[in-house]
TrEMBL record:
It comes from Felis catus. It comes from the Eukaryota. This is Rab-GAP TBC domain-containing protein. SMART domains: GRAM, TBC. Keywords: Coiled coil, GTPase activation, Repeat. Residues 974-983 have a biased composition (Low complexity). Residues 446-633 form the Rab-GAP TBC domain. Residues 901-932 form a coiled coil. Signal peptide: none annotated. Gene3D superfamilies: EF-hand (1.10.238.10), Pleckstrin-homology domain (PH domain)/Phosphotyrosine-binding domain (PTB) (2.30.29.30), putative rabgap domain of human tbc1 domain family member 14 like domains (1.10.8.270), Ypt/Rab-GAP domain of gyp1p, domain 1 (1.10.10.750), Ypt/Rab-GAP domain of gyp1p, domain 3 (1.10.472.80). Residues 974-1009 are annotated as: Disordered.
Amino acid sequence: MWLKPEEVLLKNALKLWVTQKSSCYFILQRRRGHGEGGGRLTGRLVGALDAVLDSNARVAPFRILLQVPGSQVYSPIACGATLEEINQHWDWLEQNLLHTLSVFDNKDDIASFVKGKVKALIAEETSSRLAEQEEEPEKFREALVKFEARFNFPEAEKLVTYYSCCCWKGRVPRQGWLYLSINHLCFYSFFLGKELKLIVPWVDIQKLERTSNVFLTDTIRITTQNKERDFSMFLNLDEVFKIMEQLADVTLRRLLDNEVFDLDPDLQEPSQITKRDLEARAQNEFFRAFFRLPRQEKLHAVVDCSLWTPFSRCHTVGRMFTSDRYICFASKEDGCCNVILPLREVVSIEKMEDTSLLPNPVIVSIRSKMAFQFIELKDRDSLVGSLLVRLQRVHANHPVHYDTSQDEDMSREQIKISLWNDHFVEYGRTVCMFRTEKIRKLVAMGIPESLRGKLWLLFSDAVTDLASHPGYYGNLVEESMGKCCLVTEEIERDLHRSLPEHPAFQNETGIAALRRVLTAYAHRNPKIGYCQSMNILTSVLLLYAKEEEAFWLLVAVCERMLPDYFNHRVIGAQVDQSVFEELIKEHLPELAEHMNDLSALASISLSWFLTLFLSIMPLESAVSVVDCFFYDGIKAIFQLGLAVLEANAEGLCSSKDDGQALMVLSRFLDHIKNEDSPGPSVGSHHAFFSDDQEPYPVTDIADLIRDSYEKFGDQSVEQIEHLRCKHRIRVLQGHEDTTKQNVLRVVTPEVSILPEDLEELYDLFKREHMMSCYWEQPRPVAPRHDPSRPYAEQYRIDVRQFTHLFQLVSPWTCGAHTEILAERTFRLLDDNMDHLIEFKAFVSCLDVMYNGEMNEKIKLLYRLHIPPALTENDRDSQSPLKNPLLSTSRPLVFGKSNGDAIDYQKQLKQMIKDLAKEKDKTEKELPKMSQREFIQFCKTLYSMFHEDPEENELYQAIATVTTLLLQIGEVGQRSSSSGSCSHEGGEELRASALSPDQDSVFADNNAGKIPQDSRTFTEEVEGDWTVSLEHILASLLTEQSLVNFFEKPLDIKLKLENAKINQYSLKTFEMSRQSQPELKLNNV
């Protein structure tokens, strides 16, 4: 085990220890006398000394010391009771530390680094042991406290697990702690007086892979948009990588693929996710993929056992998997024997007498009069008890009478049929048959025509769905037929393109059956609805199965065997294309090297996966591929694709472009024949025609399938699922990059913001959305992120998120008033009143603020202070009738430097007339601003000037302009009034109410009382006092300091840099502020 490093002098112990191995920095020693055949006396002497000199050594005959060159001081860092144990520690040091230490220049740094690493390993071992003993160990609570203190996330950011490791910065490792939370990967290090913090959201990760470099044999590399980070020196790297892979997969699919992704019930609430949940999910997904079971099937137990296999006359060692509706068995030796027992088929589950030859036996009997004997089951009683409860529940919910009679009408392909009949006798003929290597060979030879439909149902387990849902398909057909929508129109358009050359679809009977199946499925699963290629697949299913059976086969393919293939973005097919590219590099390296861009090859092969080769191979040959697919799943398509490429490797390597490569593959696939097919030859759906007169060599499908199994059949389900998980991250991030580039392409020509700044703004906009998904309740993912919408509308934010961004990047900061201004801006931009805005609207507004002309900026400010931006319920918009802040009774007198005063009333009236004449009539006229709205406009301007270097000049200028505008409003009011004498007389009286030097716009409510007659006048004219945008703009242009303020150049880059740094902290502060009232309420 690892030891806490303590310094010792080696010269005092030279006679007690013998050096076994040594390197530049480490020494492995054996206790003298231990393991020496002739050293009995020496061993006794050393043992006696141990009690006095070194009591710890008695239990550890081996140890490893840290030695720094040139120093006499050594530090024990590990000990072991056996040579095997100490060698494991030595190997770990050699692989993870030895090459790393050469990067340090200082000996003391080397010693500090190694000691810190060993202490971290000890802490991790301790926490791992505690985690095994209790659900919430004290060590985890300590780590949680440190995580919260170091990264200051909201409480909703749940820590899942943590590990000691090193993060590489160039060639220098930084020892620290890796924290994995539900939304982020975080790393903290404090080493040699330097603190390092890294925060990487899972949604930013584009690659997650295991690599090796010059210094270390195994590292985990995290790739984001701009950086690569390597983490190494884990105590258990396999475990760490699996947890990271699960967290990245769950988070990316939850946030970026919510169009089709359904989370496991245990993972629906991210704040409740634990390490145990992630491990269970990984096991559950492997279970469902291996046995190709429905997505909703939940694994309950995995038990080691042995199954009696009568064909081999022995017990086969393997594991039993039990779930809601299935008992499954898989042998330890891959492909030796698999069994799927739907509980619907099970008659009884019984415990037999325990004997030495048959320990803990259980007999599972099925309806077809077969019995399966399992032995060596641990905790047999509780296992059988839980199985009986689920068995009773399944039979109670779906009582079905099975027809056990056997179909003996087999008149074609007698040799194959006799082989299959012999196999049925020995291995079983129902879904519960023993699935061995022998049945795989029979499938590869081609299933007889008369058995094809039945075996497809058995291999896919669609037969269980069919029996479990009597009448379901008929009801769906009744509900869906006659309804007209976009999906039914697409189906109608493709009906006559589905195997048009086949006689079955040259009449209305076949077309009507195809229409019913496709429409019923679209009605069952509106998330998928209908996608092209489903028509071709369904046509083939109808050739070999009854209509209802074809429907359930389609369900099995779309929902279990090809998950996420048939939807708006065909994510599943793209993931498998990416996996296929990696398999090409691994198995056909020469071809991969020649084809520089494998994506072109992948685009050619996309139809292979979407239609299972049905669209590009003669039908009688392609159905043999479908046979293998229903037995082996997607693995069969991968290996057949590799076999096709290998067979054409020479032609592909000599091809000059993608078109020629397509020609090579198309000709090959069109000349694949099925020599055993009893029916007439039917060409491929998209057969390739060539003018060449030279006959093309024919390939037998049986030979091609046999080659695919022999050369490329070594891929296990676990390996394929791992590759899918790895490439799903890349595909989803690829879609995100495409969305981003398309949004920027649309927005860039319409604004003056630089492209690189626009990209930063997009990242901030998306991150703001993501942070609300992380921590807000309820989680707003569905309405705000919809991958099926146009690119520019996929991400949208609400008013709270917009307010955060406005505070971070807007140049119009108004102190406490900023939040109010942001809310008004949001209401202005929210054209469709759905309380969400997209990126284009957000950037267009910012572009005016940063790059607009003065008149554009004033127009925007003006619009922010009239409806719909300003509302009656605006929290900072009280009516002057209730709170008379604005004085409207001052005379229209401007102070001059020589003390003279000039009356401008006539000039103002003329200005108003001139502005009205010059106004562009083509532009939609903005409504005039009322006095209440004008108060808010002035308040915003005053707030904007706060802390400006020219603050005093700006205040004086805006006071002058405001006074001018007040009088313009009153002049306009008088000119539109009836001109009664009482109003004119009252106006003359009010002309002396305030002296010219009282130019304050906002009066203090408590400083003095407003005369009753003034308040009365205000109430009378509130509805008539108005001012227009033209008035405001003309008045502002009279003050040079205001013109300078609105026309000065503004740099967005500094704002963006600060925003990237402060975005998380602002969100955290806002959430902590929200939680304070709740805490106070709870305390009360």
